[in-house]
């Protein structure tokens, strides 16, 4: 068995086992405590770092740096996505125990979409290298929109998946129980919880279109792209409950992430111009951007704690 095959088999088995454990332990809807969220966050982080070490010894330093850089990019973008999830749950009044259920199935859907997009994107970039210009421009536009665009507003009635579901299935007005679809009096009825899940899935689709081009600027190796994406996504649910109560403190995080996207977008364009930015520089820029944004946010919140003004610009709904 070759080194590459061994890593593929190890990665696949690891994901299957961890998904089985995660889904088995979370079959019933329940409120995720801070201790549980912290434990699972550390488990997923530990697995990612252990796998990264395995890549280092089996594939070399370059691939290990590419994996770690890609993992940081995807994890940073995932954290930003949590703001949107908070707004969705707030708009629909979803209780904590039901949020865990929605995120569980939402993340499974995200994994499927990422696998499809990654292999499709890798194939397209190998055949049509001019797509680097397109992907770079998309990232630059996304960076500008994230930094200077207006806040996200949740409008379920404008979501294509929600509109389609409402035409196919009658829907109850209130969330009752933890089911998405149930058969009553001979007909299938959908819960508003299904609308929440569809909103989350559609957001995951948009996030994938933004984040996958970013990691292709780091490497075109499908194995590195896929594994770094999957490890970043798998811990997203536990990270959500770990950070949900303090997300409003990271008021400048979006600027750090938008700078990373802009940097990666420029890097993709430079690739087509024959300029290669070393992976060590990319990793340094990403780490410094995140650290600066977090420290800046915490300092601003602490300085403005008395008046509360910095939190008013966080973009989160009241009570989130």
TrEMBL record:
Keywords: Membrane, Transmembrane, Transmembrane helix
Main location: membrane
Membrane topology per record: Multi-pass membrane protein
Keyword Transmembrane: yes
Coiled coil spans: none
Keyword Transmembrane: yes
Transmembrane segments: 6-25, 37-59, 71-93, 105-124, 130-148, 186-209, 215-240, 252-273, 279-301
Compartment(s) where it occurs, according to its Swiss-Prot or TrEMBL record: Membrane
Family: Belongs to the TerC family.
Name assigned to this protein: Membrane protein, TerC family
Organism: Trichlorobacter ammonificans
């Amino acid at each position: 068995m070759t080194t590459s095959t061994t890593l593929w088999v190890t990665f696949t088995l690891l994901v299957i086992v961890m998904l089985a454990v995660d889904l088995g332990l979370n079959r019933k809807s329940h409120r995720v405590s801070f201790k549980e969220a912290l434990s699972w966050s550390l488990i997923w982080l530990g697995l990612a770092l252990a796998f990264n070490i395995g890549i280092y010894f089996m594939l070399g330093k370059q691939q290990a740096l590419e994996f770690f850089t890609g993992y940081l990019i995807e994890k940073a973008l995932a954290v930003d996505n949590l703001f949107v999830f908070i707004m969705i749950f707030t708009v629909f009044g979803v209780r904590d125990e039901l949020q865990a259920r929605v995120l569980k199935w939402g993340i499974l859907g995200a994994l499927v979409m990422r696998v499809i997009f990654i292999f499709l994107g890798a194939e397209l970039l190998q055949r049509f290298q001019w797509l680097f210009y397109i992907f770079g421009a998309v990232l630059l536009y996304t960076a500008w929109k994230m930094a200077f665009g207006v806040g996200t507003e949740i409008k379920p009635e404008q979501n294509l998946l929600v509109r389609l579901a409402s035409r196919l299935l009658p829907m109850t007005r209130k969330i009752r129980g933890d089911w998405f679809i149930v058969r009553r009096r001979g007909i299938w009825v959908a819960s508003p919880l299904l609308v929440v899940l569809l909103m989350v899935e559609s957001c995951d689709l948009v996030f994938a279109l933004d984040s996958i081009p970013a990691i292709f600027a780091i490497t075109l190796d499908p194995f590195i792209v896929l594994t770094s994406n999957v490890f970043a996504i798998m811990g997203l649910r536990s990270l959500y409950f770990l950070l949900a109560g303090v997300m409003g403190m990271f008021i400048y995080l979006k600027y750090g992430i938008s700078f990373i996207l802009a940097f990666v977008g420029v890097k993709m364009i430079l690739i087509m111009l024959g300029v290669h930015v070393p992976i060590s520089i990319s990793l340094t820029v990403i780490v410094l951007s995140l650290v600066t944004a977090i420290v800046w946010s915490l300092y601003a919140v602490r300085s403005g704690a008395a008046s509360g003004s910095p939190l008013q610009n966080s973009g989160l709904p009241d009570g989130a």
